């Protein structure tokens, strides 16, 4: 079990009640569930997401995700990898076709516990479960070529910050995740 990730999450400064409660749940699972980095952990498993911004941090990269039928951030399952920043970068490259993606910071940008409804993936039913998610702020060049990943998404595009929130058709994500990420980005850019 990654003690460095536990330390990073423990030291992470939450910004609201959602993050405070989700942080406690993620730490409990990291401490008590030795399978949490694997999808075989059927009730909850670790994931990493990315809020990918362009060079001047005025736009966000989104994909049109098949399972959610919505524009959404990029990310995926840890699948045994405990370096979640590495997972986030790998997922962004796979889902967008981008070759160059770099962290704006190696620090955790946000924490979320996300519900995933049961769905069909690769012809098999996946039961409803939780994603214990760590989000990183990443950067890519807006002019670099984007490519869809047909088995996961049908679109990849840059959106101005507020348009990224509006593009999502998932009200919970709009209100509790994407608006929060944008607010944190704006606050960070003021420093």
From TrEMBL:
PROSITE patterns: NUDIX. Belongs to the Nudix hydrolase family. It comes from the Bacteria. It comes from Vagococcus humatus. One of its GO terms (molecular function) is hydrolase activity. The keyword Hydrolase applies. Residues 43-184 form the Nudix hydrolase domain. SUPFAM superfamilies: Nudix (SSF55811). This is NUDIX hydrolase. Keywords: Hydrolase.
């Amino acid at each position: 079990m990654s003690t460095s990730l536990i330390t990073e999450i423990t030291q992470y400064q939450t910004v609201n009640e959602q993050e405070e409660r989700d942080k406690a749940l993620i730490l409990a699972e990291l401490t008590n569930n030795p399978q949490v980095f694997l999808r075989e952990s059927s009730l909850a498993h670790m994931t990493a997401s990315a809020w990918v911004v362009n060079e001047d941090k005025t736009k966000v990269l989104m994909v049109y995700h098949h399972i959610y039928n919505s524009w959404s951030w990029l990310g995926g399952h840890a699948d045994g990898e405990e370096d979640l920043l590495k997972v986030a970068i790998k997922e962004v490259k796979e889902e967008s076709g981008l070759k160059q993606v770099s962290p704006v910071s190696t620090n955790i940008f946000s924490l979320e516990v996300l519900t995933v409804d049961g769905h069909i993936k690769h012809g098999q039913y996946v039961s409803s479960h939780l994603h214990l998610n760590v989000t990183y702020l990443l950067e890519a060049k807006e002019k670099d070529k984007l490519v869809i990943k047909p088995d996961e998404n049908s679109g990849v595009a840059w959106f101005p910050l507020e348009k990224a929130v509006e593009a999502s058709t998932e009200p919970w994500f709009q209100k509790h995740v994407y608006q929060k990420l944008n607010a944190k980005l704006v606050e960070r850019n003021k420093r």
